[in-house]
Structures are given as structure tokens and as C-alpha cells.
Design goal:
The complex is a heterodimer of chains A (about 350) and B (about 300). With about 350 residues, chain A is mostly helical. Chain A has two domains: about 250 residues, MetI-like fold; about 60 residues, no CATH class. In chain A, about 70% of the residues lie in helices and about 5% in strands. A two-stranded parallel sheet of chain A has the order 1-2. The longest helix of chain A has about 35 residues. The radius of gyration of chain A is 28 Å and the shape is elongated. Chain A starts with a helix and ends in a 5-residue tail after the last helix. Chain B has two domains: about 70 residues, no CATH class; about 220 residues, Orthogonal Bundle (MetI-like fold). Chain B is built from 15 helices and no strands. The mean pLDDT of chain B is about 80. The chains are: A mainly alpha (about 350), B mainly alpha (about 300). The interface between A and B is large, with 42 and 46 residues.
């Protein structure tokens, strides 16, 4: 929220409000827009807090019993946990005395003494956790928070990179036209002639698994829509008087492209950015679910859903609910924010 | 018209060349040495050299590219690295199950979405309209995965109406027994976004001048909607169906993975997991070709729907 207000403060011109001030005013009057902005901001804060370790830093700790019940269902029977705790760990048959032939036998006593010196704190596993536990007794709520961090981080970063690629290529194609345009259009046609999901899978096949890889894959495959729109904006603006005026006072090509025209296309780019965050979060969840996304030592909504598939059959629904609901709220918030942004930035569209 | 089609076909050549280059770049250059993948943990250098020779990786890049181009046009991608099955056979046998699922999905989804959308557009602005739109927005925000997991659990496991997963040799049994649940879930997921989109297409047409004229000359609202608005809104709807048509062949790979349907989508996911490059290469090239033809077909179909369209 603060970044938006910072952008909106006009530096010198107080006489007439600029595009961003007007847009901000329109957004402020849009109740749905403000609520969704608050939701998105809350998720972003949660992501930062989780990244800094304030929230859910211990998501990997096995705090509860296996499939610990949620607190509000604390009394419910938990067969899975019982099975583990009731298992008799003492050997059934008396061990055969092999000390006469076992070469290590004389040292057993010494080792036992040394082992006894190491303090082992018996962890008391909780019977119930705030929103239940997973198979290893990890707190599902903490996992959902950590998973949000990973999923949102991937979505945001990939969308930023895709927007960057799309904007630069689109600006070049629209501004220069001619040969550059032909070449980039050819490039665009190649990427769009392969069905999107197949393109992602083909990229995933050749790259190694990892968080950075999935960002690269999503960015490299997802720039096409932004490119097309930015190109159209540049073609529209290129012939306008203000660009000609800029040329007349000796502004360089670079300056005309990115200092003069870009701010006028920025509303399109911002809406696209916001739209792509949502679709990339969805794509990340699916990729992670298939095991092509985040590495095994991390948690994302996708890996949570992958675990939840088997848990549902034995009646442990909370992980599915936690991952599904936290994702649904963010996606709804982000989509509605996108709609409000579009309305606020381009009132003619309504 | 003929001249237009020929020109469009002519324009496909550079794009196809680009697709071939992109895939070659990805799998032969970025993908690294496939012999390492294949040999797995075997570190015998002789064995690796042998595999490299078999695959032609020891040849210079231009020769490998030439081999790839030949493969594309002779439909012979050799054998799968993982199962040693012929790639062409894999593609042919996997297409059937995918189409069994996806053709009904596409047809039913489009029909239902158009019918519902025109009904919602008819009562635009009313409480029904707004309620349906809110339901659609909420439904769209839930992950496809959640729908499949819950649907499979509820209809297959709890109610037992359908088998939880599986596929058989007999087409009839597949259609009656195994296909309905995945088809139903796919429609459930796809309906909400399409309904919203098509409603906006109808609303756009309703605000046009010709609709006002039609009303002014005394046509009943039903006739205006079904004859004038529907026909004009079909153009953007056709575009949207055309965009989704090629992905019908990849199927909903998620559905195929969940329901163990031996279709193309599941084949691709397994191939990606096993680094089975020939299969992925073949599927990608042919689907890209198919997409180009479908795009052309859609553009030609415009003319049938809308006589105002002229081929330039």
C-alpha cells in the first residue's frame, strides 16, 4: 500500500492531478478494490514476515503426533497416531548371547556409557495442533504460511521477469517496426504456436529442479501476452505529437522509448503484471504438485495438495483445506484487485 | 479465399522452422548430453560412448539438426529412451483415450457455457445475474487440483458412483464407466471462466446499435437475443474455442494423471519425469503444427459465421 501512495505523490505539479493520483482516487472509492488490496497487502506482509523468520520459521519441526487433530476437533479419535505410539519397541524374542564370537562385544559397555552421557530431551508431541498436523506431525498452519511465501514469491518474481521481457521486446517491436518487428513477431509466433502448458513442460524437462528454475521457466514462457499488448501500445503512441516533440528537442531513441512512451503504457503493464501473478501462482502450484516445481525440502501449496490427496481418503481434510483456502482467498483478492486496477486506470473501459 | 489459404500456409514455414530450432536448442543444447541421463549411474566410459554414438550426439550440431528435421518429416522419432517403444506408436495409441475425454468436454462445456451465458445475459443486472457471477468468481479461484481431489474422493470413494480411477480396453466401457467422472469434473472447472467470458461477449453485443434497432422495430426480446445477438457473439466465442482447441490433444494432463488414463497428457508428464526427450520433442513439434492449422481453420470459419469478414 505504501508503495502505491509513494508513487502517487506528484513531485512538483500541484495544479492538475496526474494519471496515478486520479487512479488512486478512483481506487479509493472502489470498496471492492480496497478490500482486495488489503487482502493482497496482508498476504504480502505475511510473506515478508515468513521470509524474515518471524512467522512459521519452525514449519519443519515435528511438533505434534502424526496427523494431529486440529484444536477444534481435539477430542476426535486419531487412529494413525495411536498406531505409532502403541507399537511395541522392545524386541519380542530374547536376544541370543553372541558375546563370545562378537569381536565388538568388549566395547559395547563403553559405548553404552558414552551414549548415556549425551542428553536426549524427550520431545513431548502435542495431541492437537491449531489447524492439525500432517503425516510427520508438522503444523499445517505453519506449512500453509510457509507455502504461501514460496508460492507468492515464485508468482511475483516470475511475473516481474515476464513483464520485463515482454515490455522490452514489445517496446522494441512497436517502436522500431520494420525488420525488428518482423523478427520479434516471428519469435512470438514460435512461442504461441506451442500450447502453453506443453511449452512449460518442455522447458521443465531440460532444466534442473529448483526454485530459481521454475521462476525462469515461467518467465521465459509467459511473456508473450504482455509483449503483444505493449507492442500495440507503442505502435499507437509512436506517431503521437509528444513523441515527435521529444524527437525535435533531441531526445535519444532510448529516452523516447522508456522515458516518454513507457509511462503512457504503464497502466497496461501494471494490469498485466497483476494478472500474470495470479496465473503464475496457479502454474507453480500445478508444477509443484507434479513434482516439477519446488525442491523436496521446501513447501508450497502444490506440494501440500500433493500430500493432501492421500490424506483425504483417511479423513484428514485439514491440509487440503488449509492449502486450498489460502490459495483461493489470495487468487480471488488478486483477481478482483486486477479488475479494480483496470477500472481505476482506464475509466473508458467500463 | 484459395489465395488466402495458400499465403497463410506459406507463412507457416518460417514459424515451423522456428519451432524446430527452439526445440532443437532446448533439447540438444540446453538439455545437455542425453547419454549422461541414459547411462544413469553407469560410469563405464565405453558404454557411454556407445550410447552417444547410437543417439548421434557425437556428431556436430548441424548434423544433429538435420537428423531432427528428417525425423519431423518422416514421422520417425525412433524409440523412447525409457521404454524402447516406438515414439510414433506411443503417440498413436495415446491419442485415443485423450480424445475420449476431451472431445465431450469441449463440446459440452462450450454448449453449456453459451446457453447459460445467454440466459444470464438475458437477465443482466438482476440478482440472479449477480449471484451467478459471484459464484463464478469464487469457483474460479479454487485450484483445479482441489476440484479433482475432492471430486474423485467424493464421487468415487464416498458415493461410489464411478470407479476412482482406471481405463480398459473396451471403448464402450471407457465411455460409460471410466470417462464420466473426469469429464464431469473438467466441465465443472471450465464452465465458470467460460460463462463469465461469454456473458461479457453477449453484453458487448447487447449494447450495439443494431440491437436497439431490432427492438425498435418491435421484435420480441427473445428473438433479438437468439437471432441477432447470438450470431454476432459467436465470432469472439469461436476465437476462444479455437484458442483452446489444440490443447484438447494434450488433454487435461492433470485429469489423466489423477484418473490413470493412458492418454497423451499423462505420457508427456511421465516423459518429462523420465527425461524421455524423443517423446517430448515429437509431441511438441506435432502439436505446434496442429495449432497452426487450427488457427488457419478458425480464420476461415470466421467467413462462414460473419460474411463481413474479408480475406486480405
Amino acid at each position: 500500500m505504501s508503495s502505491v501512495t509513494a508513487n502517487c505523490a506528484p513531485p512538483a505539479m500541484q495544479e492538475s492531478p496526474g494519471l496515478w493520483v486520479l487512479a488512486w482516487r478512483r481506487l479509493r472509492n472502489d470498496r471492492v478494490g480496497m478490500v482486495s488490496l488489503a487482502v493482497v497487502a496482508a498476504y504480502l506482509l505475511m510473506m515478508i514476515a515468513s521470509y524474515a523468520g518471524i512467522l512459521a520459521g519452525d514449519w519443519n519441526k515435528e511438533k505434534g503426533v502424526s496427523y494431529a487433530n486440529p484444536s477444534f476437533l481435539a477430542g476426535a479419535e486419531n487412529l494413525e497416531a495411536k498406531e505409532v505410539t502403541q507399537r511395541d519397541f522392545a524386541p519380542k524374542a530374547k536376544p541370543v548371547d553372541l558375546s563370545d564370537i562378537d569381536p565388538l562385544a568388549p566395547r559395547y559397555k563403553e559405548w553404552e556409557e558414552r551414549a548415556a552421557k549425551i542428553a536426549v530431551t524427550e520431545v513431548k508431541r502435542a495431541e492437537s495442533l491449531p489447524f492439525g498436523g500432517d503425516k510427520w506431525g508438522r503444523d499445517v498452519l505453519a506449512k500453509a504460511v510457509k507455502g504461501s511465501e514460496v508460492s507468492i514469491f515464485v508468482g511475483l518474481t516470475a511475473a516481474l521477469f515476464a513483464t520485463l521481457i515482454g515490455t522490452i521486446l514489445g517496446a522494441m517491436a512497436g517502436y522500431w517496426g520494420g525488420k525488428v518487428n518482423d523478427f520479434l513477431e516471428w519469435f512470438y509466433n514460435i512461442f504461441t504456436s506451442i500450447p502453453y502448458i506443453l511449452l512449460i513442460l518442455a522447458f521443465a524437462a531440460v532444466f534442473k529442479r529448483g526454485l530459481d528454475t521454475i521462476i525462469v521457466i515461467l518467465a521465459l514462457t509467459g511473456w508473450t501476452g504482455i509483449y503483444r499488448l505493449v507492442r500495440a501500445e507503442y505502435i499507437k503512441h509512436c506517431g503521437r505529437e509528444y513523441v515527435k516533440a521529444a524527437q525535435a528537442i533531441g531526445a535519444s531513441h532510448f529516452s523516447r522509448m522508456f522515458v516518454h512512451i513507457l509511462p503512457n503504457a504503464s497502466h497496461v503493464i501494471l494490469v498485466q503484471l497483476s494478472q500474470h501473478v495470479v496465473s503464475f501462482i496457479k502454474a507453480e502450484v500445478i508444477l509443484s504438485f507434479l513434482g516439477l516445481g519446488v525442491p523436496v525440502d521446501m513447501v508450497s501449496w502444490g506440494t501440500m495438495l500433493a500430500e493432501a490427496q492421500n490424506e483425504l481418503v483417511i479423513g484428514k481434510w485439514w491440509q487440503l483445506f488449509a492449502a486450498g483456502a489460502s490459495m483461493a482467498i489470495l487468487v480471488t483478492g488478486f483477481s478482483m484487485l486486477t479488475d479494480s486496477l483496470r477500472d481505476a486506470l482506464d475509466p473508458k473501459l467500463k | 479465399m484459395t489465395a488466402y489459404v495458400i499465403r497463410r500456409l506459406w507463412q507457416m514455414i518460417p514459424t515451423l522452422a522456428g519451432v524446430i530450432l527452439l526445440i532443437f536448442f532446448l533439447f540438444n543444447w540446453v538439455g545437455g548430453d542425453p547419454a549422461q541421463v541414459l547411462a544413469g549411474k553407469i560410469s563405464n566410459p565405453e558404454q557411454i560412448a556407445n550410447i552417444r554414438k547410437q543417439l548421434g550426439v557425437d556428431q556436430p550440431y548441424w548434423y544433429q539438426l538435420w537428423v531432427f528435421v528428417q525425423q519431423v518429416f518422416t514421422f520417425d522419432f525412433g524409440r523412447s529412451w525409457a521404454t524402447n517403444e516406438e515414439v510414433s506408436r506411443i503417440l498413436l495409441t495415446r491419442v485415443g483415450p485423450t480424445l475420449t475425454i476431451m472431445v465431450p468436454v469441449l463440446v459440452l462445456e462450450t454448449l453449456l457455457a453459451v446457453v447459460f451465458a445467454i440466459m444470464v445475459a438475458y437477465v443482466r443486472g438482476s440478482l440472479t445475474d449477480r449471484t451467478i457471477m459471484v459464484i463464478c468468481t469464487t469457483a474460479m479461484s479454487i485450484s483445479f487440483l482441489v476440484y479433482i481431489i475432492v471430486g474423485q474422493w467424493f464421487f468415487g470413494f464416498i458415493l461410489g458412483w464411478f470407479p476412482v480411477q482406471g481405463w480398459s480396453e473396451s471403448t464402450l466401457r471407457n465411455v460409460l464407466n471410466y470417462a464420466p467422472l473426469p469429464i464431469f469434473l473438467a466441465i465443472l472447472v471450465g464452465l465458470a471462466p467460460q460463462l463469465r467470458l461469454y456473458r461479457s461477449f453477449f453484453l458487448e453485443e447487447i449494447n450495439q446499435d443494431y440491437v436497439r434497432t431490432a427492438r425498435a422495430k418491435g421484435l420480441p426480446e427473445k428473438k433479438v437475443m437468439l437471432k441477432h445477438v447470438l450470431r454476432n457473439a459467436l465470432i469472439p466465442i469461436l476465437t476462444n474455442v479455437g484458442i483452446h482447441l489444440p490443447s484438447v490433444f494434450v488433454g487435461s494432463f492433470l485429469l489423466e494423471v489423477f484418473f490413470s488414463i493412458p492418454g497423451l497428457g499423462r505420457e508427456i508428464v511421465t516423459a518429462v519425469n523420465r527425461s524421455d526427450f524423443p517423446v517430448i520433442k515429437a509431441v511438441t513439434v506435432y502439436l505446434a503444427m496442429l495449432t497452426m492449422f487450427v488457427n488457419l481453420l478458425v480464420d476461415v470459419l470466421y467467413k462462414a459465421v460473419d460474411p463481413r469478414v474479408s480475406f486480405k
